[in-house]
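Morning. Coffee machine broken again, so started the prediction first thing and wrote up yesterday's gels while waiting. Chain of 782 residues, entered below exactly as on the submission form.
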Amino acid sequence: MKKITFFLFLFASILANAQSFTVKGTVYDENKNPLPSASILIKEMKKGVSTDNKGNFSIQLPKGTYTIEISFLGFKTIVDQITVTQNEEYVVQLNSDTALLDEVLVSAVRVNADIPVTFSNLTKKEIAKRNLGQDIPILMKYLPNVVSSSDAGAGVGYTYMNVRGSNSERINVTINGIPYNDAESQGTFWVNLGDFSSSTENLQLQRGVGTSTNGSGAFGASLNILTDAISEDAFGEISNSFGSFNTRKHTVKFSTGKLNDHIEIAGRLSNIYSDGYVDRAFTDLKSYFLQGSYVDENTLIKAVTFGGKEQTYQAWFGLTADELAADRRQNPYTYDNETDNYQQDHYQLHWNEKWNTKWSTNLGLNYTKGAGYFEQFKPEEDAADFNNLIVDETDVIVRRWLENDFYVFNFSANYKTNNINFITGVSYSNYTGDHFGEVIWGSDLAADVNIRDRYYFSDATKNDFSIFAKANFNINEKLSGYVDLQGRFVSYQTAGLTSDRDPIDVDANFDFFNPKVGFTYAINNDNNLYASFAVANREPNRNDFENGVSTPETLFDYEFGWRLKSENVKLNTNIYYMDYDNQLVLTGAIDDVGQPIRATSGSSYRLGVEIDAEITLNDQLYLRPNASFSQNKNRDFFTVRDGNTTPTSLGNTDITFSPNVVLGNMFTYAPIENLQFSFLSKYVGKQLMSNLNSAISDNDVLDSFFINDINLVYQINPKKIFKSITFTALINNVFDVEYVDRGYYFTFDDTWSNAGVTTTVDGAGYYPQATRNFLIGATLRF
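Came back before lunch.
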């Protein structure tokens, strides 16, 4: 048997009437280090197990001959046949796979089942099943405690993701270990990564604080993305999809394979277009991905560039309740070019070196260039709001620009033996950005004013330096410990005027210490428990400074979990308690560009339980249910209203956009090897759009919703021309539910309509999501 060394131990006796036998063994690397969480798959039975912390596995099989597949990330997969006629034990050696050294690019920010962190993985194969043009947050919406949304309602363009009630400004995102969050807003603009899922090898979502990562602090979750791995073989791929609302995606990919066993060049070009569910809320995304790699037994050097250009029509102000009731697809904006236009290009260089059996290092460099504007028509404006470039009561068209440069340096070193895995590293980033507005047309310009004269300007600089050391180590045969220490040092300066021509002069420095500690206890080969405590600190973003908030926030995150892995069931259950000081919660309101406004809530917490499972019912039926139940509260929340100057206590109130119940399920039926049907369900409980617990009216309530999708994947393998042809279909919201998953809420004091008595009144906006719609596609690989 190739690459498997069998050491057979014959038990003294076997009961004559036994119908199944125990096959067990241990999986090692070439240096005799055990490989925990290696995958053991019996193909004929479509069942498998994973190795425990010592690399051991055990599986029950009836008498017969089977194809066994043994795999582990970063190692060459072994596929061979075994004949089972009695209880047997094997010793398996896996050899490093240089083509999978890519995984090391994210090793400093990722975790596995040995580390006491709550996480979910999504593989390239799983992403491909629904990769028909929708953005990454939409493809992730069936993960535990995730709620996704989009401005245009069809999942293309400006899309968003909340995890544990925390929005994108509080979710740390890295690509190959390089920070992706915008340095100033701290948000993630997926619209600038059109069709990036087609260049994603896998991703990991860590809920809670997670492990130390690069860039902004994780206050609800961290998401790290690994781009395409090196392909051993040359290939070409053409993918096209079409669907409702004139949605279409066209993708071309290629790889040279490994030339002379060392060099690979690969790339992708994509165009995604959609008219949007909301009227005229179109999206036009053009993107590219190109990488060149050099690899040998101990070295991986990879140069990656990706980016694109987007144009989207205005949909970020949603609809009022009356507009929603009259026509949920209408768009109140009528100016033809009320659009957002932005281009972003990324250049990365990675060098991973394995120095010996214990030490390896990883160096990452990045430069990102971004530039773009959005254009708006504004009627009957005051001259003072535009630096007197116009006459009072003039109609005006403006462009508000952002130009920025972002540099990153990452370095990490990894020391690994049988008993300890130690990683230490540093990360430094420098951001510079210019914000300015131009008048490009006016019905009555002031004297001596030229088109494109600026009416505001501000510049910004942000430096972010962090240093960390983390170790996962064995205490005894069953208990392992985890320690993770990070120091983060941030400076932010900006000077000039905001778009409202208010001064914004910030010179702030923040020094943070973020310790994490935890333990994992192996009850047996199938069960382990973990517990962890982590501290995270986070600085305010630009919008917070504009709104007078300059205090950082602190999170104390407690996690306790149980993981079960058996032949037919994988179960992850965890309880979390996230205790905040000065949490910057969403007020529910948005600013004049649709960005959420935040305020310090004082003391607050999130307490919940999360459950997710993978259940194999038989060779053809699979379930992947998940459930999250939580309480998300501001403690002793105060508000000022009705013209009073004394704050009113509302007691403990619900935190905005934090549903108490989030449920999901994937039911998959595979009647034959190349055909798969999936029925996907998502339930999101009631959400409040303010922290006031409907103290003014019930306009701040978003109703619960339950939606279902159907996904079909069928692959054929022709003998000529094409290696494979894959057909994919997706029916979204199959039961045609009219629902709203996101909105905004605002209050104002009304005196005129109340006979001189000041009363606080409110209003709301809503983002309707698409009713029943479909996407179909075909991928030709040759």
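The radius of gyration is 27 Å. Going to sketch it on the whiteboard this afternoon.
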